[in-house]
Design brief:
Belongs to the bacterial solute-binding protein 7 family. It is found in: Cell envelope. It comes from Marinobacterium lutimaris. This is Tripartite ATP-independent transporter solute receptor, DctP family. Its main location: other. It is a single chain. This protein is α/β, with parallel strands linked by helices and 341 residues long. The protein has a single domain, classed as Bacterial extracellular solute-binding protein, family 7 (D-Maltodextrin-Binding Protein, domain 2). Helices cover 48% and strands 19% of the residues. The chain contains 13 helices and nine strands. Strands 1, 2, 3, 4, 5, 6, 7, 8 and 9 form a nine-stranded mixed sheet that branches. The longest helix has 35 residues. It is globular, with a radius of gyration of 22 Å. The protein starts with a helix and ends with a helix.
């Protein structure tokens, strides 16, 4: 776009046009790359929403000095690849979930069964001192700074055999779990038969009867139309999934103080937006499951306590052999304090 000197002067007299032209004229002098494995659509993708908000805020508030290039859909690899790339600084940032505990084992404490009684309690814990302590610990171990926590949602059991309203109803059921030892211990503690299966093989395993059921957030169950393969779902909310928005520490420290503050603010807003989108998707997904004939079992507080009593002690005991026991105690105490406020 070309302007004569007269036209340009007139345009610059308008504050809005001055801002637009200044942004166009300025080439970014800092470029951040950010990868994740989810779709890019902000209306339906929690990571898609969070990363787009982060990009827009950083670019706008920096006046175009900082450019954020987002790579969704696993374009740069799976979550393990993204974490490695961020550690190597071939990627500035990543938004990942469960895989983060592979490089910072203490992050697995967030997967303690029935740890969080609700999403708002989880937010208070993660955004409070416990979340800050975990972020600092993982930074020291990995070289990755957690700027903010997002949400992948509460996980719930589905199956094709019978309703599950108490732990003993899981006995004898073959339940697909992620290839993560903690999930194996959880299902085993309640009498089920945990069957680790890679994600791409899950639909086939469900349709052929290799497993009777699986566990995932409602949004994932609906998006993958598992209602075509599973009759029953129990809203037991056994594990709250967390997203980690991380940045390479050397990249972060290489920024001016004002830009570090800008990026931190944008990250917190991005994490909050991701949580909101996940909450909307869960609500919409539950309606979709009902419309498609799934029988939904909602637990009373007493029933929820039965599941917690069956699963949490066994997994806590196992987890304390995998990580420093103090992290488990700190997490449990943080939830207790947040619940009492």
């Amino acid at each position: 776009m070309k302007f004569s000197k007269k036209t340009l002067a007139a345009a610059l007299a308008t504050p809005l046009m001055a801002g637009i032209l200044s942004a166009q004229a300025l080439a970014a002098d800092i470029t951040l790359t950010l990868g994740h494995v989810d779709p890019p659509e902000w209306q339906t993708s929690k990571k898609g929403a969070a990363t787009q908000v982060f990009k827009q805020l950083v670019e706008a508030e920096s006046g175009g000095r900082i450019e954020v290039n987002v790579y969704p859909n696993g374009q740069l690899g799976g979550e393990t690849d993204l974490i490695q790339s961020a550690q190597d600084a071939t990627l500035s940032m990543a938004m990942v979930s469960g895989a983060f505990s592979k490089v910072c084992k203490e992050a697995a404490v967030l997967d303690t069964p029935y740890l969080f009684p609700s999403a708002p309690i989880a937010w208070k814990v993660l955004d409070g001192q416990f979340g800050k302590d975990l972020s600092q610990h993982c930074l020291e171990k990995t070289g990755l700074r957690t700027l903010a926590y997002g949400e992948t949602g509460f996980r719930n059991f589905t199956n094709s055999k019978r309703p599950i309203s108490e732990p003993k109803d899981l006995e004898g059921l073959k339940i697909r779990v992620m290839t993560v030892p903690l999930f194996v211990e959880m299902v085993k503690s309640m009498g089920g038969e945990p069957t680790p299966i890679a994600w791409p093989e899950v639909p086939s395993a469900l349709s052929t009867g290799v497993v009777d059921g699986q566990e995932n957030p409602v949004s994932v169950i609906a998006a993958n139309k598992f209602y075509e393969l599973q009759k029953y779902i129990t809203l037991d909310n056994h594990i709250y999934g967390t997203d980690f928005l991380v940045i390479n520490e050397a990249v972060y420290q290489g920024l001016e103080e004002k830009d570090r503050a800008l990026i931190q603010r944008a990250a917190i807003i991005a994490g909050t937006v991701g949580r909101a989108i996940q909450q909307v998707n869960s609500a919409k997904g539950l309606g979709e499951l009902a419309e498609n004939g799934m029988e939904i079992t909602s637990l009373t507080a007493e029933q929820q306590a039965q599941f917690q009593a069956a699963a949490q002690p066994a997994v806590v005991e196992w987890l304390k052999t995998e990580i420093e026991p103090e992290w488990v105690d700190k997490a449990l105490n943080a939830v207790k304090t947040a619940s009492a406020d």
